[in-house]
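User: Before I run my own analysis I want an independent prediction to cross-check against. Here's the chain; please return only the structure tokens and, at the end, one sentence I can use as a sanity check.
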Amino acid sequence: MKENLRKATSDAAFLIEVARLVSSRPKIPSVKETKQGVRDLTREQGSSGKKMVKAGTVLLAFPEPITGIAGVPILLVGAALQKRCSANLKDIYRERNKLITSLASESFYF
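Assistant: Structure tokens:
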């Protein structure tokens, strides 16, 4: 009877340890989350800048006293937005390497 109690206690301690290890492992993102992250990274983010460049160009193309003054700043801000918001494949490669190194640094126990 005591032997069965010791074995049950040992098994329970083992299961508690396994549950603790499984619950403490890092969360691996789902396919949906990964796709959304890649889509966010590669989405054309300079579209608002392109629209501002077009609007500024139109304002400068049809000169009137006020539109010429407003067209230059709109054109410059649009050009700055286009340069600032450019993501490319190099960014994806860099993020992939960061993810791999962070996963490699974690230890998994099953």
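Sanity check: Residues 31 and 37 are 10 Å apart (CA to CA).
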